[in-house]
Design a protein that fits this description.
globular, about 35% helix, six-stranded parallel sheet, 17 strands, alpha/beta, Rossmann fold, pyruvate-formate lyase- activating enzyme, 16 helices, about 450 residues
Length: about 450
């Protein structure tokens, strides 16, 4: 029997009062990609899942292959873990979105890399493992979970994850926002699973609180409506991520509400048409009226809004940031995520800044020892890098004050018309506040 070790790297560490400690994500979500990967191995493979956020890396435990899934913010730590195993002459395979976007970089730390989705090439990978013939590169396109095969959630082993189930209906996104790593990785494609498989997965697990990790669950409105109809009899509560154009489809919103949707993370990104145009965020410009009618329609259908905004585009100024914060306070969004606009490698935005010589940290902020989470990694047009970083942190602090949380809890209760929605927001609003303050000093690696 072959033994496989799957590893989910931590983002980094905190340096506080001359002490260094591993960053422990109190709002940790289940590492769904690893559970999906585990389900692809045949029964005669023994699988261990290690979550670096909560447990030590077992470098000296015998294993035949270590598989590490990396995203851009976990790449540096993932490479450190990979290097530790390879020093012990253990084979390492690295996959994940960052490996797909930066294969040459990833190859420096791995015996093998997986580019793209795992499912189309996994049969070949397993055969190569059996024959001790691991290939340096496995490359595939966009796919989805194999029908009838479900994530190995038994491997989570009661680690301290948030008490809702993560699952996926579709992968990718059809839009081409110039800063988005999803668009760069999936090349504006989108696929969906059979709705019957999603229903079976929910019934198998038995939990009633779910989060769909789809980058845009309504990217295919027809398929989304089919899904929502099938969810109605299950009597669940769920959350997801969706684009603002869903507000233009009343039938979609009605089905969404009836299916148990509590709310969505929505990428507003900017509150101005000029800002959206600079990011090529075309989907947000459909019937654009400063979002007013869209927000009203979402609230009318009982959908909470968890607003995501990016700070630092060339159209942003100190005044526009004040207006952005006022906009969020005015609409009392359940959550507000204010994030520095990041130059993700492989995106048009990264290439633009590199050409203009505006990138910082030697053009590789995700590997630089001095970079800290949500720090400006380029020279903005209307701020200094430090000024932009501080302005963004101030916006986080103000929106996550206790007074702001209470006002938003009241709004959530009136939007959903249930006390459970208010209780949910109170609990996770506090967690979000805590994580916001902790990550301020987070170094990657």
């Amino acid at each position: 029997m072959m033994r496989i070790t799957l590893i989910w790297p931590n983002m980094g560490y905190l340096k506080i009062e001359n002490q260094v400690q591993k960053f422990s994500d109190e709002a940790g979500m289940e590492p769904l990609p690893l559970a999906v990967i585990a389900s692809l191995f045949p029964d005669d493979f023994e699988i261990d899942l290690i979550d670096d956020r909560f447990e030590a890396i077992p470098y000296d435990t015998p294993t035949d292959l270590v598989c590490i899934s990396i995203e851009i913010f976990t790449a540096r730590r993932g490479y450190e873990i990979a290097d530790g195993y390879r020093k012990r002459e253990v084979k390492v395979l690295i996959g994940g979105m960052h490996a797909s976007l930066m294969p040459s970089e990833t190859r420096l730390h791995a015996d093998s890399i997986l580019i793209g989705d795992a499912e189309p090439v996994f049969h070949n990978l397993v055969n190569d493992l059996r024959n001790s013939n691991l290939q340096p590169v496995y490359k595939s396109g966009v796919s989805n979970q194999i029908p009838g095969v479900f994530p190995r959630r038994d491997l989570y082993r009661k680690l301290p994850y948030l008490p809702f189930m993560l699952l996926q209906f579709g992968r990718g996104c059809p839009y081409s926002c110039n800063f988005c790593a999803i668009s760069a990785c999936f090349r504006q494609t989108h696929t969906t699973r059979p709705v019957s498989d999603v229903v079976r997965e929910i019934e198998r697990d038995g939990r009633k609180l779910l989060f769909f990790v789809d980058d845009n669950i309504i990217a295919n409105p027809k398929a989304a409506k089919e899904l929502f109809r099938a969810l109605i009899p299950l009597r669940i509560k769920w959350m997801g991520q969706a684009s603002i154009d869903m507000a233009l489809d009343d039938e979609l919103l009605d089905l969404m509400n009836k299916s148990g949707c509590m709310g969505h993370v929505i990428g507003f990104e900017s509150i101005s048409a000029e800002g959206l145009q600079s990011m090529n965020k075309q989907v947000n410009l459909k019937g654009f009226d400063s979002y007013s009618s869209a927000i009203q329609n979402l609230y009318k259908h009982g959908i909470q809004i968890w607003a995501a905004l990016v700070i630092g585009s060339d159209t942003d100024t100190p005044q526009s940031l004040k207006e952005t914060l006022q906009f969020c306070h005015h609409h009392k969004f359940a959550f507000g995520a204010f994030n520095i606009l990041m130059p993700y490698p492989g995106t048009p935005f990264f290439d633009q800044l590199k050409q203009q010589n505006r990138l910082l940290f030697d053009n590789q902020w995700w590997l630089h020892p001095d970079y800290t989470f949500n720090q400006a990694a380029f020279v903005p047009r209307h701020f200094t890098p430090e000024g932009l970083t501080n302005a963004c942190q101030q916006m986080k602090n103000e929106y996550n004050s206790y007074g702001s949380i209470i006002r938003r809890v009241i709004k959530a209760a009136t939007t959903r018309k249930t006390l459970s929605s208010a209780a949910f927001l109170m609990r996770y609003g506090y967690l979000f506040r805590t994580e916001t303050h902790k990550k301020k000093y987070l170094k990657l690696g």
